[in-house]
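Re-run with default settings, no changes from the original entry. Doing this only to confirm the output is reproducible before filing.
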Amino acid sequence: YGTDGFSFAHAMERCVGVGECRRHEKGTMCPSYMVTHEEQHSTRGRARLLFEMLNGSELRKEGWRSDAVKESLDLCLSCKGCKGDCPVNVDIATYKAEFLSHYYKGRLRPIHAYVFGLIHKWAHLASFAPKIANFFGQSPFFAGIAKKIIGIAPERKLPPFATETFKDWFRNRRLPATIDHKPRVILWPDTFNNYFHPQIARAAVEVLEDAGFKVEVPEANMCCGRPLYDYGMLDTAEKWLRHILDTISDSIQDGTPVVVLEPSCASVFRDEMMNLFPQDMNAKRLKQQTFLLSEFLNKHAPHYPERQLDQDAIVHGHCHHHAVMKMTDEEAVLKRALPNYKLLDSGCCGMAGAFGFEEGDHYDVSIKCGERVLLPEVRKTDHETLIVTNGFSCHEQIAQQTGRKAMHLAEVLHLAMKEGHMHAPKPRDGETGERSRTRRRWKWVAAGAVAAAGVAGLVATTRRRPKSLFSK
């Protein structure tokens, strides 16, 4: 809480009751209120209860063990929409992580907290025998038993593990011959794109190399700990971040950029890390050196890509992308690579990490959030239209509820690199695209007229030419 004097109590005074969070449409804040229309599930309602927990006579008795506060926070999707949309930047996702850390101190958490919160560890173990893990995870019988034990909604499908992780692929690949003298960039191998969707990270490697960079991937087994915050496992999250800061310390101090493909992981380096290490210089450096793919390309390769696709597309912004990084750079890159896109005002997809996998109210709220805008928009599109979103959770919600496969920006750029056409010439300053096309058409007409006149003159000259002295 650096901006609040490192005081949770001071942070609770941010909310002044404006009620901007009680809107029913537009923006990201607050998805749970948008579908329940209940004050206790709004940003304002939660902030008020937390304030009363510290200052009020009734809730103060229970303090950090208050079940009323926990109930209010339970349907918070930790989307950070309030951090981005609230006029005073109330950050309920961070307050929820703090509260749960105290609430469960000395207690056991529900089993799903250990399954989802420590997903990096389970995915790492599964990577040694992914086919066996998938046999149990994809079998209706065994998966049904696992869902019942863990508390996963029976309607949900468990995402399969990749048969080859991204890091294994990267370790075994043949490097391009001319790569050594190019600028270095670290591609962060997050849990989701390493163990579940490695094709996205592979596409990112080839895109970054095509843009003129040498890609490096850390060998050490590391995770930013994003799911830990959802369950208040802050001690473990701090240890994992300290491990990262120590392991890549040299690269951080060298100023090497770090490209992160998963928006929720990028937001850890840009947000949560500074809450846990407010005075650490390497943490401050890593925050400044962390980029989403679009941010990195816009800053270090502003004309990339040089090829574009003609397909139509709809784009859904991940909640953390909207709240922490904003969509400005994403749109700038999309305008170059996929100009026929439409950015949806779809708020939160509803999956929100593990939230949408959990049975009961969490699953119900998850589906209602998705059905508010995003899922109907996806179903309306034809199968030639691309669906673009960068979050693993967003991909899963779309796939499980519509049967459609979404693409990451890295995959869009990779497709443009392989199948796109070169950009049309840019219009002159102050000139519209139509006027530019008209100017180009007249240029071709004029060039054709000149060529025709030249050919006619050549023919006429040939006809008048006298016979050679050596002709028969």
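The two ends are 101 Å apart (CA to CA). Residues 433-464 form the longest helix (32 residues).
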